[in-house]
Amino acid sequence: MLKLYTYYQSVAAHRVRIALNYKGAPYQSIFIDMDHSEHLGEQYLHLNPEGLVPALIVNDDLVITQSSAILEYIEERYPERPLLPQDRELRGRIRSLAQLFIADMQPMNVMRVYKYMQDEMGVDYDKRRAWYEHWMSFGFKAVESLLANKDDTGAFCFGDKPTLADVCLVPQVWNASKYGIDLSAYPTVRRIYRTCQTLSAFQAGAPETQADLLAQSS
Ligand SMILES: N[C@@H](CCC(=O)N[C@@H](CS)C(=O)NCC(=O)O)C(=O)O
């Protein structure tokens, strides 16, 4: 069975959980407590020397890191419920939007960057917060303009079925909502987010339903 090293609040792990659940792929979650720096412990660094979550373990020994590589692996291994369509050009556009979240937005919003800003550069909370708000608005503005009033935009980012783009949109919106970013200027983004939330795969991948969070409140 696949094993996923995950942490409930990790945006990158959130994407992977949604995809695994959408495919109905059996997997075991192994929780990494990032609040207590478990991702920087010797055991986890042995798996992923970058100390970043998620990591997927295949056949008990192969480690795949990088959420976009993991998503592509899942798509190839479980083609039955595709998250990428047959149409090559459309696949290119879906990957492009997915990368906007994976490669451009999320890296502006990671613990190690904030820690470095705070501990090594003396950047105070308000300035770190301004950085986060700036890059999230910058990203969501671009996403809204790519999706609003476009023929291809349907109930989801591309048409009426979820794709990798939706799998990547939802965790970034979840994160922004949790940290109080005003999303009112992005109605299409919010509408698609709400539609995704009605699907069981997205619910099962959500931070609120993860055992590591539930264990904290029990
Ligand atoms: N490019 C990586 C990024 C992974 C990443 O940034 N993970 C965050 C959680 S969302 C993390 O582990 N951060 C730990 C840290 O910043 O120290 C991917 O897409 O998998």
Written account of the structure:
- This protein has helices at 11-23, 42-47, 67-77, 88-105, 111-121, 125-147, 164-178, 187-197, 200-205, 211-217, and strands at 2-6, 27-31, 55-58, 62-65.
- By secondary structure, it is of the alpha+beta class.
- Helix 4 (88-105) runs parallel beside helix 7 and helix 7 (164-178) crosses helix 8.
- It has ten helices and four strands.
- A four-stranded mixed β-sheet has the order 2-1-3-4, with helices on one face.
- The longest helix has 23 residues, at 125-147.
- It folds into two domains: 2-81, Glutaredoxin (3-Layer(aba) Sandwich); 88-203, Glutathione S-transferase Yfyf (Class Pi), Chain A, domain 2.
**Alpha-carbon Rg, integer:** 17 Å
Biggest sheet, spatial arrangement of strands: 2-1-3-4
The percentage helix is 55-70%
Cα-to-Cα separation, first versus last residue: 28 Å
**Ligands, ions, cofactors:** glutathione
How is this structure best summarized?
56% of the residues lie in helices and 8% in strands. With 218 residues, it is of the alpha+beta class. A 4-stranded mixed sheet has the order 2-1-3-4, with helices on one face.
Please specify the SSE layout and strand pairing.
Elements: E1 2-6, H1 11-23, E2 27-31, H2 42-47, E3 55-58, E4 62-65, H3 67-77, H4 88-105, H5 111-121, H6 125-147, H7 164-178, H8 187-197, H9 200-205, H10 211-217
Parallel strand pairs: 1-2
Antiparallel strand pairs: 1-3, 3-4
Helix pairs in contact: 1-3, 1-7, 4-6, 4-7, 7-8
The structure holds glutathione.
